[in-house]
Design brief:
seven-stranded mixed β-sheet
Amino acid sequence: MKLWTLLPALTLTAPLALAEGLITVNKDPNCGCCIGWMAHMASKGYNLEAQNVDNLNEIKADYGVDSTVSSCHTAVTDNGYVLEGHVPARYVEQFLAAPPDGAIGLSVPGMPVGSPGMEMGDTFQPYEVVLIMEDGAHRLFAEVNFPEEQ
């Protein structure tokens, strides 16, 4: 069964233990890796809703996501924080528990192989989770060097 056929079930039945309300995932209607990331997040207790959009670059700009931290989807928590791309749930949880002053969200720039939703067998590409600041600056939030760090 293809992952995107599970989307309605993921949206309706995700456990809410860790959820900070609804996370709206703005995505291209044909993107399968976005659905993979949503499945990862739902499995960790987050409540998600996909919103297929034609103006993803405008949405990114509206939320302060510039091209240097851009990825394939832009998720927004109901309290306004941005989760750009394939950010692992463990870092979302850390961020939402204590958002740094002046931060607007997290990003995993690009689409690193092996990140949640971008699994390709045993292949894994180390990557960074980047803190996006409201003044446009970016800072390192976490380095993910091994799959078990996700």
